[in-house]
């Protein structure tokens, strides 16, 4: 899959600048491999009845786009990005399993579900954003919920500043700023998307 003709670093810069076409291109390019990984890991028939690989794939990409938009990742190679996306997919699939097999919701205890009931439950679940415009809205909401300092860090990261430079500008340890910022993105992201 790792097509070296794709300039991942440029696509990520475009995504940070809010260009939906770059997000769509990246999604189309990596979606088949992410879905294959998710389907491979969704072995339980009971879980597959209520969790769709497309839902998890969209959650993977939304999570990735939010983090890229917030300046979290530095990726230049297609293979490096693929490995990151597959890791996120594995984690989200594991989270979906844990959620569905929890005692209060254990899907293994469900005796039977007809197709109409499954469709009704899917429609009733929280919808995952499916296009780049909605992802941009999510990024905007993420930024709205950042503190003033966290927003400043996000702005500097989008402008291409490295953590060392941000630390110098803000008069703090780059590592402390990076960790605090990543925790904030994780915290807010979980409120915006399922399985963040």
Structure description:
The structure is a single chain. The chain has one domain. The longest helix is centred in the middle third of the chain and has 24 residues, at 78-101. 71% of the residues lie in helices and 0% in strands. It is mainly α. Helix 2 crosses helix 7 and helix 9 (163-170) crosses helix 10.
Features:
196 residues, mainly alpha, globular
List the helices and strands and how they pair.
Layout: H1 8-16, H2 20-41, H3 45-50, H4 53-69, H5 78-101, H6 115-124, H7 132-145, H8 148-158, H9 163-170, H10 174-192
Helix pairs in contact: 1-2, 2-4, 2-5, 2-7, 4-5, 4-7, 7-10, 9-10
Protein name: Sigma-70 family RNA polymerase sigma factor
Domain RNA polymerase sigma-70 ECF-like HTH: 7-190
Coiled coil: 125-159
Quick synopsis:
This protein is an all-alpha fold.
